[in-house]
Amino acid sequence: MTSALQISELTRADIEEFLYSEAALLDEWRLEEWLDLFTIDCLYEIPAPDLPDEDPGETFSLIHDHRAMLEQRVIRLKKPTAHAEFPHSRTRRLVTNVRILDKRSDEIKVGANFAVYRMRNGIEVTYVGRYEYVLIPSSDGLKIRHRKAILDQEVLDPHGKISIIL
Amino acid sequence: MTTPEHLVIDDRDRGLFRVHRSAFTSEEIFKREQEEIFSKCWLYVGHESEIPNPNDFHTRRVGGRTVIYTRDKKGDVRVLLNSCRHRGAEVCRERRGNRKVFTCFYHGWAYNNEGKLVSVPDGDSYSPGFDREEHGLHKPRTESYRGFTYVTYSADAPSLESYLADARYLIDLVADQSETGMQIVRGIHNYSMRANWKLLMENSCDGYHGFTVHQTYFEMMMNLGVTPGLAADMGNGSGRELGNGHAVAESPELGMPLMSEEILAATSGRRADTVARLGENHTKKMLNTTRNLILFPNMALIDLNFGIQVRTMFPTAPDRTEITGWQLMPKDAPDALKPYRIDNALTFWGPAGLATPDDVEGLEQCQRGFTSMREIEWSDISRGMEADAPTAVDELQMRAFWRQWNQRVTGEKARTEGPRYDTSYLDGATDDAELQASTSGVTL
Predict the structure, then answer these.
(1) Using CB atoms, which residue from A54, A68, A73 is nearest to B354?
(2) Domain presence at residue B255
(3) B42 in a domain, yes or no?
(4) Is residue A163 a part of any domain in this protein?
(5) Which of A97, B3, B308, B311 stands 20 to 30 A from B206 (CA)?
(6) Could you give the CA distance from residue B243 to residue B162 in angstroms, rounded to a whole number?
(7) Does residue B439 register a pLDDT over 60?
(8) How far apart are the C-alpha atoms of B285 and A148, rounded to whole Å?
(9) Is the separation of the CB atoms in A164 and A118 below 8 Å?
(10) By the CB < 8 Å criterion, does B362 face chain A?
(11) pTM for the complete prediction?
(12) What ipTM was reported for this prediction?
């Protein structure tokens, strides 16, 4: 990414490159670098599994992290006392069906599908769903203002511990 | 593995309490629980605020049976077994909605939401001996207490109120938080764990695990500028039996993460209104004390002041549990408070929160450890067994649960332990020293 990032010139390949790099940071547990991808006014959220279309801030959702809590989530996950993730799960993320949904002067909306495989204690769990992103250009490349992971699983069985970043 | 003589050892002479680990692993005991507990006790179905309008319904699994939790067209709350009287298919396949009639798609038998069979296609082909009145949807005994609806599949169970015993005081402390009623927030957490259901009942009222399991949660609070009550040397609270296997762990307030000036004002305003309505002592008990209530057999009602969690846990196998979590809040909570309470609740209790996954990890690790059951047969739950005033970080709450469990499963009579729940906050007493004593676990 160049510093003179122009939304109008961004292609799907640019977006894919960004999403794949983000997925790699997560799979490699480079969470502080991942956090650096977010804006100060960011929001990371996962809707309630039974209300995927509703506002996670107004319903009993799974995640509704503004910047302060997202930082705390990352700090926590890197500690050995984050028991659900000690030792860390192995994860492998497949991000596909990437689409540019909307381009505005200052932001770009992106949709993608995901399958996140999580392996731990000999148990393999697959989370399936789709992402919605709002990305904004910065001198430092694209930044994430809004990242929403919408799960297709309505009953989290056997997915009961969402201790990883989805 | 041979079955031991006792599953629970309640040794008052030595102050020791042990549970045989087969209680967590045995198929035979799992089956006995289905019969003696889940077919006989009162089981939580839902909160009436989930079905506010006539014909609203939710389908859910309660005690292994699939049920329809509905408000009929006259406004009465009902629980119907979701199984066609013809061949057994579920007559309602949606998770929630609003319907007057449930039609089995298999052969088209249709029932109204009072359970009455109202339509049988080509019904003239049945003999006169076929009585439609006898073929309504099965209606298990259903009763509500303060908006919480329960069913029992037993004709012999006592009334719900008598079954709840002193736990009613604790339910009142939640239900009385609003004059306009309490409301389940939309959005349900349905998740599972690879561990026995009773481990989560223990965990739901376990003050002892707080600092070890949830250290990172408390660190998060402190990073955000909040001192947790437990760390502020406010005492260790109390653990009390409530009768029939129900019990509570009460502690000084935990503290309010994510607080802002606006939230502080809304919280103080609500507190002042409550003091005006109920008095200082009652309010302090209600809004400034955390209460981890367990209701036998498989419900927890946890009020951490920043949110109220309703939870059920049903076993599907000795080492598998279906968990449901709901969030309850006052209907008249100020607008600023609603998203704040939701954020705190899901950040603590959600399956993707900063606390619950560590609980589940702990319980799953226990279950893994039970593979050594041949060598290590017993789990220890003796903490605080000889204390005059057991605290929330003792284990009286769990012993109360286990004694009731043992009575139901083996027939050995449950004995009581410790003082009864202190309800002096209802007397309108204003003596702070007295209240201090009651919340720190001293019997008055």
Answers:
(1) A73
(2) yes
(3) no
(4) no
(5) B3
(6) 10
(7) no
(8) 39
(9) yes
(10) yes
(11) 0.94
(12) 0.95
